[in-house]
Amino acid sequence: MDAAAAARRLRAFKRWMRARGVVCSDALRLDASDPLGVHVRAVAPIREGDLVATIPRGACLTPRTTGAAGAIEAAELGGCLALAVAVMYERARGGDSPWDAYLQLLPDRESVPLVWPADEAERLLAGTELDKIVKQDREFLCEDWKECIEPLISSGELDVHPDDFSLDKYFSAKTLVSSRSFQIDDYHGFGMVPLADLFNHKTDGEHVHFTSASDDSDSDGEDDDEQSDASADDQSTIENPTNSPSGSRVDDEDLEMIVVRDANEGEEVYNTYGTMGNAALLHRYGFTELDNQYDIVNIDLAMVTKWCTSIFSSRHARARVSLWRNLGYSGCTSQDAEYFEISYDGEPQLELLILLYIITLKPDVYDKLICVARDLVGDEEHDTIHNVVKFVNGTSSTPNSKLNGHDELHDVMKKFLHSESICSALLSLADMRESLYGSNTLEDDEEKLQACCIVTERKLYHSLVLRVSERRILCRLRKYASSRSKTKKRKHP
């Protein structure tokens, strides 16, 4: 969209806001000059506690307010799937839609990996935390469309052309819903909130919060759990729908944008979509942030067992993982995968360290431990590992007789979980995880990122930010693991 067209659509949107009772403070200016999209800027100082925008619930596009509400109810759709149907329907109505001026201001689709060409997404995201997720997303959405959207068109409930509800149009609508929708309340569920969705995100640097007056709680982005479920959950259950764009509800208080941090004249005014790493930001919203301290890298349990099998045997790997589970431990889970997180500073998840500890136990100690494993399980995970460390120390040929206090035990536990064998395993796992990125080095990716243009090479830029951040975390993991040998060298010059 060229600058003149963007300016015309913004003027039309402002007229629409006035007609629908959406109020924006004179201290704010909507700016359409940025090629990356409309944003909000302060033209006068705003201070904490200021009310800078009010949006009537009836001005929001939701499964309740859309003209397709009856068909959505009949099809028993809910959640973000229902909202995607509402967006497609109102877009298909064009100028006849009460939300036409608002929808015209939005892009056709957000540039999230879901709608990147499959070969490009595979190339740019190789090795990253999004590599598998994007492929699964496509499969889930194709299933949703086949099971829910196609029958809806065939039913004749909606007077629209089938092309307006094509798989491609569904993908486009889903990108808008995932990047711009808010949880409004129990009645409306998820909805598109005009004006509120024009505030860009800044991690830990937001100026405003979107609040729902009915529950006085902040809302942001898409439901974490909503992936492909076609049916409504309790919160999104559709009851007493209305075809009226203004909605019909006892609680009809306006939604509000409240200032939570001062902004001075000329500054862009930010909202927050929550505290999330670049993988989640790129996945849902189509952008990343440099030096995002919420970034993590995952190491799959399958990778750990593969490493273990290469050093010992598959039987050894199965037995040690089984003992680890019997002690009450497990990794993080997502769909069909189990994994461990490496934090931004390179520190491994405790459960991974404990698993590596068990994997590298000497056979005689392992044999003794397996006999008493269930007796060592405590109420808290730290209690269990404390008990295990005390037991192993007691069976050692050189036990620490001074293991009496909790602090002393904690120090010994840290020593056990930062042993030379565990650190060696971490270095191997870091190399295995690094290999997933391909033959390019971290330095290659950093050079590409420096030369990349965020406007003309948006997909490449954001994928490189993600890759570089993840690979730097692996560097910090290596530093964490290498500190053991460096400590030993200092102690034994």
From TrEMBL:
Superkingdom classification of source: Eukaryota
Principal place of residence: nucleus
Extent of Polar residues compositional bias: 237-247
InterPro entries associated with the record: N-lys_methylase_SETD6, SET_dom_sf, SETD3_SETD6_MTase
GO aspect biological process, one term: methylation
Keywords: Methyltransferase, Nucleus, S-adenosyl-L-methionine, Transferase
Keyword Methyltransferase appears in the UniProt entry: yes
Gene Ontology CC terms: nucleus
Subcellular location: Nucleus
Region (Disordered) location: 209-254
CDD domains hit by this protein: SET_LSMT
GO molecular function: protein-lysine N-methyltransferase activity
EC id: 2.1.1.-
Skewed-composition ranges (Acidic residues): 215-232
Keyword Glycoprotein: no
Family: Belongs to the class V-like SAM-binding methyltransferase superfamily. Histone-lysine methyltransferase family. SETD6 subfamily.
Function: Protein-lysine N-methyltransferase.
Protein name listed in UniProt: N-lysine methyltransferase
